[in-house]
Design a protein that fits this description.
The structure holds two protein chains of two kinds.
Chain A lengths: L2 H13 L5 H8 L3 H13 L20 E9 L8 H8 L4 E6 L6 E7 L2 H12 L5 E8 L5 E2 L2 E2 L14
Antiparallel strand pairs in A: 1-3, 1-4, 2-3, 5-6
Helix pairs in contact in A: 2-3
Chain B lengths: L9 H4 L5 H10 L5 E2 L11 H12 L12 H15 L9 E5 H13 L5 E6 L5 H7 L3 E6 L10 H7 L4 E6 L12 H13 L3 E5 L24 E6 L11 E5 L2 H14 L5 H13 L1 H24 L12 E2 L10 H12 L1 E2 L1 E2 L11 E4 L4 H23 L1
Parallel strand pairs in B: 1-10, 3-4, 3-5, 5-6, 6-7
Antiparallel strand pairs in B: 2-8, 7-8, 9-12, 11-12
Chain lengths: ~160, ~400
């Protein structure tokens, strides 16, 4: 399958991963078997990693705390930032790790049950890592939009029901 | 006082109300309807366009503009037409910004038609052409097109309806309601016909940007057609801007000057907020436009395939956002199909007959609706079609 068609399949799945291969095939004018094969291939090569649901945690009444931590690192000869990043991303509390340009090096997203729990994790596990120079912890107070979805926006259709 | 109708201009009095209107009332009285009867994008105007309007308001742009529209917008329109379709217009004398493409259609009729002049209107047709012809004192002559010809307008069909009184031909491609487009050779044949018969061509190309297979051919770009064509377009469909009411007409400066007289005495100018938003859409809206077009295209393939799968043969619409499947397999008329579908399955689609007699046997299904809506609606339509077939068999 050509790269353009694969990208189209990915776009559709990223919008709604419950779309069936049959439906995707109709939408793109492809054969269902070809879509199935392409998806399987992309799963095998770990281009598609997972099919999660995007939720609004506030509706869940969940008090989980999320923090974004700016980490400054002394890069290691031959290994750059990768080894330090690995030491960090192996912790299950760590949800994401990005290497950044700009004022700090690694952006680490951590979830915990309380602010204290997160703060202690940073103090006891992150800040003390060899090669970690400094950390700055920012707690998330409110979520407005994630992965292109606005939390508070309801899909409303205000059009006339029939128009020429 | 006499009865009210005695005061009314008989031309208006006898004008039939739109078939869409009757259906609209039916739908409005039914709860829980999924409507695929909507002739406008389901997308909200892209944010950068809305935001530019706030900014314009903040800076106090709340006044009249030139009758023609702001010079910046007219310049941007001519740039858009040049880069999209390769046709050149002079921004200050050959472009008029109107209140939607609808006003442009009306202006063209009123400017060009004398009492009794005939206008060839290919059918199935958008609902406004014939009434605007009638209101301008002209005579609308329907030219049927057929699914067997892929709803293409042929010179043969035109020859049957043309007369010495014919002054104008209307072309609306991509077409509402069929979704048909016309290819260059087909349009060239129409152009030769227009030249031989010395006709003015009103090319309503409002759906031009929503062309999914092949390239849109701008009629004014065909050899010898620029000065014979009144080119109408707008931002409603391409940039999801129906409510802003910004359309435009391009043509020979002598036409435009005359149309502008009616516009200046009746409308004065298109709203400035809409004009400012349109300027932003034309300057910076290509990315959002192509994102929407891509979505329509996916839905189009899905909807057409589903209709064919359920046994309602559907012509392949290559433009606009309508599917126009045949419903003759159910044994129902278009009106009965739509009314029963609405009553039994709460799905609204528009009977083909709302677009002229040649729409009998078809329904117009707008796929300007989310995939979730389309999937649910098509499942309901399929259930209804199965029942119709069973009823027919017993």
């Amino acid at each position: 399958m050509e790269a353009g068609a694969k990208k189209q399949i990915l776009d559709i799945l990223q919008e709604d991963c419950r779309r069936s291969p049959e439906q995707i095939a109709l939408m793109l004018g492809l054969e269902a078997e070809a879509v199935k094969a392409a998806i399987a291939e992309m799963e095998d090569e770990r281009l598609i990693l997972k099919y999660p649901a995007l939720i609004n945690p506030e509706k869940l009444g969940d008090d989980t705390v999320t923090a974004m931590i700016d980490v400054k690192v002394v890069p290691q000869r031959d290994l750059g930032f990768d080894q330090v990043a690995e030491r960090i991303y192996r912790y299950p509390e760590v949800r994401s790790v990005f290497l950044m340009s700009g004022g700090y090096d690694l952006s680490v997203v951590i979830e915990g049950r309380t602010m204290k729990e997160v703060a202690l994790f940073v103090a006891q596990k992150l800040a003390v890592l060899e090669h970690v120079q400094s950390t700055a912890t920012h707690f998330v107070l409110k979520r407005y939009k994630k992965d292109g979805v606005i939390y508070d926006e309801k899909a409303e259709d205000n059009r006339l029901q029939v128009s020429p | 006082m006499k009865p009210f109708n005695d005061y009314i201009n008989p031309v208006i009095l006898e004008l039939p109300p739109s078939g869409i209107r009757r259906f609209f009332d039916l739908v409005a009285n039914t709860k829980g309807v999924i409507s695929l009867g909507v002739g406008e994008p389901d997308f909200v105007t892209p944010w950068h366009v809305r935001e530019s309007c706030f900014y314009a308001l903040e800076r106090g742009y709340t006044m009249y503009t030139s009758n023609f529209g702001t010079p910046e917008l007219r310049k941007e329109i001519t740039r858009f037409i040049q880069r999209s379709y390769g046709v050149d217009y002079e921004p200050l004398s050959e472009v008029l910004v109107t209140v939607g493409a609808s006003e442009a259609v009306d202006l063209a009729m009123r400017t060009l038609l004398c009492p009794g002049d005939e206008v060839l209107v290919p059918e199935p047709s958008y609902v406004s052409y014939s009434p605007t012809v009638t209101m301008a004192g002209g005579v609308a002559v329907a030219v049927p097109t057929y699914v067997k010809d892929d709803f293409q307008l042929t010179v043969e069909a035109l020859e049957k309806k043309v007369s010495p009184r014919t002054k104008m031909l209307i072309l609306c491609y991509p077409n509402n309601p069929t979704g048909a487009i016309m290819t260059r050779p087909e349009l060239e044949a129409i152009a030769r016909f227009a030249e031989e018969r010395d006709l003015i061509v009103l090319a309503d190309e409002i759906y031009a940007e929503l062309t999914y297979e092949g390239q849109h051919v701008c009629f004014a770009g065909l050899p010898g057609m620029r000065d014979r064509t009144v080119l109408i377009n707008g931002l409603s469909k391409s940039h999801a801007m129906t409510g802003w009411r910004i359309g435009y007409v391009c043509g020979n400066k002598d036409f435009v000057a005359q149309m502008t007289k009616i516009h200046q005495y009746t409308i004065l100018c298109a709203p400035i907020m809409g004009q400012m938003a349109a300027l932003e859409a034309l300057r910076n809206g290509d990315l959002e436009k192509s994102r929407m077009v891509n979505q329509y295209d996916q839905r189009r393939r899905f909807v057409v395939a589903r209709f064919n799968q359920m046994g309602l043969t559907c012509f392949n619409p290559r433009g606009a956002f309508y599917a126009f499947p045949s419903i003759t397999a159910t044994g129902l008329s278009s009106d009965d199909f739509c009314e029963q579908l609405l009553a039994e399955e709460k799905v609204a689609v528009v009977p083909g007959t709302a677009f002229g007699a040649s729409g009998e046997g078809f329904i117009r299904v707008s796929y300007a609706s989310s995939m979730a809506n389309l999937t649910a609606a098509l499942d309901r339509i399929e259930a209804f079609v199965q029942r119709c077939k069973k009823r027919q068999a017993s």
